[in-house]
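pasting for the record
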Amino acid sequence: MKSSSRKFTLFLLVCLLFGQATVLVAKETADKRPNILFIYTDDHSHRTVSCYDEAFPWVKTPTIDRLAKEGVRFEYAYIGTWCMPSRATLLTGHHQFAVESMRMVGDYPGSDYDHEKCPFWPRVFRKNGYQTAQIGKWHTGVDTGYGRDWDYQIVWNRPKHTKNHQAYYYGQPVTFQGGETKTLKRYSTDQYTDWAIDYLEGEGRDENKPWYLWVCYGAVHSPFTPADRHMDNYPDISIPQPKDIFPPRPGKPEWMQSVKFWEKGKNNVGMWKGRTLTSWVRQYHQSVVAIDENINRLLKTLDKTGQRENTLIIFTSDQGHAWGQHGFRQKVAAYDATIRSPMIVSFPKGGVAQGKVCPHPVGGVDIVPTIFSFAGIERPWEMHGHDLTPLLKNPTAKWPHTMMLTATGRKYGSDTHKIPTGKDVFHGAVPWYVMIRKGRYKYVRPMIHDLEEVYDMKADPNELNNLAVKPDFQSTLKELRAEALKELRRTKAGFVGNLPKVREGA
């Protein structure tokens, strides 16, 4: 062989080896970026998860409890106030008042948005080498973002199919990859999991890319339908009836005296649709059992496919749901019983502590910057929350941030700058409000001329004793009021200068 030929052959060999090495390095780099599984339930109170202290002693959620042992459980998580704004926050990293162009249109729950004015962050992950997937309930505009925000998507587009908006468990019109729509006949919690497992096992998944999968269960939203196999779960239970299920509610705002979701039955037992409070609570908890079972199936699939060690798992809900507490049978209001969610994060190989409880209150706006942090992707815009990574490594570390949650009914973005009056400022029975958690205290300021509320969440976890009306608490009340205004200004809330004056109660 001539010298020139040998040199050329050697050159080709070097190029080939260098190319293979480049591929190996690229693949090794990609492998280090974590997959992200975000498990998201609906109207799911922390009280239904047995590793939470507030759960009834008969509650059993062994899979979620195991996930908590393998990660960090957040004692106080406030993701949103109701379904749509909670999801809007988790797609933007913004509080509801900054989700520009989002709006309710037509028959409920019809909604729309301008994707240029209201970009969703999964598109940023796509541009940075992640494959994005979403399965389950969609509740933020008829545009689901397939092909722009999502590479893979099987969803019940609830805003589009308004006549089927309560088909949470059977009969949903489900759209596949932005195209064909079919009616779901199986129990939704089971079917969503089947589709998620298909994806985790490789169907439609690019094995050369890390992935972000958002599994959005419809359970345990009304009509709170358990799987047939769980209809006999939790027999012969008994629960204490909340002390303030019926008015009057001393010390609470005037609007709270009109909250009457329950009728008085025999011996003043709370009744709804001819059934006792205990009966409804049992059915609600029965519906959670399938969630726990199906999370177990997801975890087993991650183990079987060898993806568990490199997957960040986040489990939470859009908000909680009250059953008699403060007279409610819904979400929205600022009480823990109505809106507090379970939240667990697990990723032992990624530096997340195991079996620890974080006592610091956190919000839905904190989840998005945390996801960006783990993925190593720069945030594309200013977000309202704080990266929770320090707390995931050391759950009891100092945390200087104030947790804030706002409720502006069905209004979003600049539509919230002008606070409505009269009945228009109410979302159902609840007026617009600003809520913060600072240390052991919760502060709530309604956007009407009424009493503020302050609760010592350690001494009074049931939120029955409103400290805002106590004469000896006025100094602390002013500090909390100022802290709420400070946080509104930090996040550029357009209505901060238009807040009605509070009503003095001391």
